[in-house]
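For the sake of clarity, the format in which proteins appear in this thesis is described at this point. The record quoted next illustrates the convention:

___
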Amino acid sequence: MNYLKNQNFQLIPPKTTSISHPPRILILYGSLRARSFSRLLAEEAGRILEYMGAEVRFFHPQGLPLFDHDQSVQHEKVQELRNLSAWSEGHVWSSPELHGNFSGLLKTQIDWIPLALGAVRTTQGRTLALMQVSGGSQSFNAVNNMRILGRWMRMFTIPNQSSVAKAYEEFNEDGTMKESSYRERVVDVMEELMRFTYLTRGASDFLVDRYSERLEKR
């Protein structure tokens, strides 16, 4: 974290928002490679968010079973993921682009998070930031398709997003991200996520209140 002390960025929450506790951000990544660049990008985002004042938690998907609706619902990794999502006020999703799309591992994580668990909405009203890494030229296929998924999960997906091309060139040996326009964009995206989280938390139930759901409850 020390290398962030000389960074020329900070975030001061607006006076109109609640600062009773730090924004709670859950970070998901979509690769199990030993040197996973989507994980390194996620970790860089996590360091930036913590520097800005967020409380950050990661879900590490090693051992998460394939989605099977209910056969594995009591698996410890499934329960861990659901509890983290319920705890969170915002998400960051970081995926490699594979065959022109986000990874199956990332999709499996989202599939295990239901829209609601009883009265608890585990994604609805949360903010969401999207990032991807590519091995070749810059692409936006993964982030664009994750945006559709975020909308389906009824999350407030922020306008900005990050796509890192030739990711193998963008990280130091210790896993930190090199200074570049790509890293500047990551800072931009995390700043925007923090702003949207400050502005919407505490009002998410109001913002996602639906007439059709009220009728169903009645």
User: Anything to note?
Assistant: The chain is about 35% helix and 15% strand. The chain has a mean pLDDT of 91.
